[in-house]
Design goal:
With 339 residues, the chain is an alpha+beta fold. The protein has helices at 70-76, 97-104, 158-168, 221-231, 233-239, 243-252, 254-266, 274-277, 290-294, 302-305, 332-336; strands at residues 31-34, 37-42, 54-56, 68-69, 86-90, 112-127, 139-156, 172-178, 184-185, 194-200, 204-205, 270-271. A hairpin with a 2-residue loop joins strand 1 (31-34) and strand 2 (37-42).
């Protein structure tokens, strides 16, 4: 049988362990990540629902018609089917199966996640105007009318969604991107009714050269940090002289991350994304929600919730606004099926 493990397939970079490899290698084809392996997914009918897609468990072996539907495989493995999972758009390292496996797996319980490249309209990828907990400058989305960007959507179960939330808050806010305003087209041709997106609370970085254009995200991290160092004497003093020094200092000290993030703002490089931050949210008070991430008593990851680089206003996260908020995040089934 073909070896489908992540290292064999070349997915070895984990940005959480090696910050200058950010954002890691993304998947480029529909894939089921499970137990540290990648199994190929293929639509069975035009516009067909994800749960009906065929899982190729033995590449190159056996007739195509013997391959099982994704939902059947998930059920056999003891995991929720696709209709009960939450579609999450990745603009950075969450598109890397190696990073996602690292984030979501625990001893004896490796992650199982369908990951699909999807054409998303109206969104482009920039750089978040903050320094992340591992020292790198992570990616963040911004609105770009007319853009058509291929982004990886992962279908997470509720426990996985809470785990990813803990790694993103408070520097990002999870919003529900509506498919009516931002069309999302699957490789099968199916149009999604919506999906979740982590939006940078501080916006995206503009070019240090003075042009009011967002810096492109998702590229070479060393080149990005070199460019930022060249654009600010204050950053060079704090984090220079080179990218290796930057990630070492920033990754080791929350106060350094806070100072570097403040310099981004004071240099005038931060471009807010109010249109994205105004997108509707489904959960403010439940597991993995925004209140959990800012409450000192929260059981979420303290390294991601007590970073002094945060400027989240606790007063803005005082709980659900109406009864609909108690329902929690919407599933793929709720987002794309008649209610």
């Amino acid at each position: 049988m073909t070896d489908r493990t992540l290292p064999t397939l070349g997915f070895t970079d984990i940005p959480a362990k090696h910050p200058l490899t950010y954002p890691g290698r993304p998947i480029t084809r529909p894939t089921l990540l499970t137990a540290g392996e990648l199994w190929e997914l293929n639509p069975t009918t035009p516009g067909g629902r994800l749960g009906t897609w065929a899982v190729d468990t033995s590449p190159g072996e056996g007739p195509k018609e013997s391959r099982e539907p994704l939902d059947a495989i998930l059920t056999t493995l003891g995991h929720p089917p696709t209709a009960n999972r939450h579609p999450i758009i990745a603009v950075g390292s969450n598109a890397s199966p190696a990073q996602l496996h690292h984030k979501l797996s625990r001893p004896g319980h490796p992650a199982t996640v369908p990951m699909i490249p999807v054409d998303v309209h109206g969104i482009a990828v920039g750089c978040s105007a903050h320094i992340a907990r591992y020292g790198y400058v992570a990616s963040a989305p911004y609105t770009a009318p007319g853009a058509r960007t291929t982004l990886v959507i992962s279908w997470l179960d509720t426990e996985q969604l809470a785990a990813v939330d803990a790694t993103e808050y408070p520097n990002y806010r999870r919003v529900l991107l509506p498919g009516t305003e931002y069309p999302m087209v699957m490789p099968s041709g199916e149009r999604l009714g919506g999906a979740y997106l982590y939006v940078g609370e501080r916006g995206v970085l503009m070019s240090p050269g003075g042009t009011e254009r967002p810096l492109p995200g998702g590229g070479d991290q060393s080149a990005l940090l070199t460019r930022l160092l060249a654009g600010s004497p204050r950053l060079r003093e704090l984090l220079g002289p080179d990218p290796g020094t930057w990630v070492a200092r920033a990754g080791a000290d929350p106060a350094v991350r806070k100072s570097g993030t403040r310099i981004f703002q004071e240099e005038g490089w931060a471009l807010p994304q109010p249109d994205l931050l105004r997108c509707p949210e489904d959960e403010h008070d439940g597991p993995g929600g925004l209140r959990d991430a800012t409450d000192p008593a929260s059981p979420t990851d303290p390294a991601s919730t007590t970073d002094p680089a945060s400027t989240t206003d606790p007063a803005s996260t005082t709980g659900p606004k109406d009864s609909a908020d108690f329902a929690g995040p919407k599933s793929y089934g709720a987002l794309t099926s008649p209610e």
